[in-house]
Input
Amino acid sequence: MGRPLAIDVITIFPGMLKGFLGESIMKRAIESGAVVVRVIDLRDFTHDPHRTTDDRPYGGGPGMVMKPEPLFAATESVLTPGAKVILMTPQGRPFTQRIAAELAGERHLIFLCGHYEGVDERVREHLVNDEISIGDYVLTNGVLAAAVVIDAVVRLLPGVLGCQGSVADESFSRGLLEYPQYTRPAEFRNWKVPEVLLSGDHAQVAKWRREQALKRTRERRPDLLERFEEHRDTPSGD
Output
């Protein structure tokens, strides 16, 4: 195993990550040394008795805005050359499997988790070099979104999953939704597993799975199918 991916998460709610990091694949990835995760309490980088991380917006308006000083101080305390500083925000680029693979190739990821009405614009302009959204909706805080991105990224690291082949077959990895899956028993409440999956004919199984992936994508996510067709028809090279 090569150099582990370093991940820092800067948040005012560090306890929200405790269960996430201590269970399942994340726990195994940390224990195996594939990833090193540090959770940083933003309030440790404030300098007032109330450990203030937010203030009223200039110009008026509802809610509070996260102050730049603690965010800059916390980030700069762990910043390394070439680190990707990611702000989790509804205004960011929509998160996809392609972006997960892109981030899995980095050496150091720093996640800034916003809260309240957002962050001071100077954080976006002078500290952050990437902004990511996990969907067109609003969460209580950015640490929940960061956990989603981290999980998708870490499971792509070499050696994290027991079978790396399963990653390639998952939904979105090849541009299509995943084909239907079955396991024992072969018949349950008169519902039978498709005969082709019991045939032992690997070529026919692969063909069936391909057809089912296309069918499911066409029915549920035609937008993905359009992009898949465009990508497949694009010639490689010059």
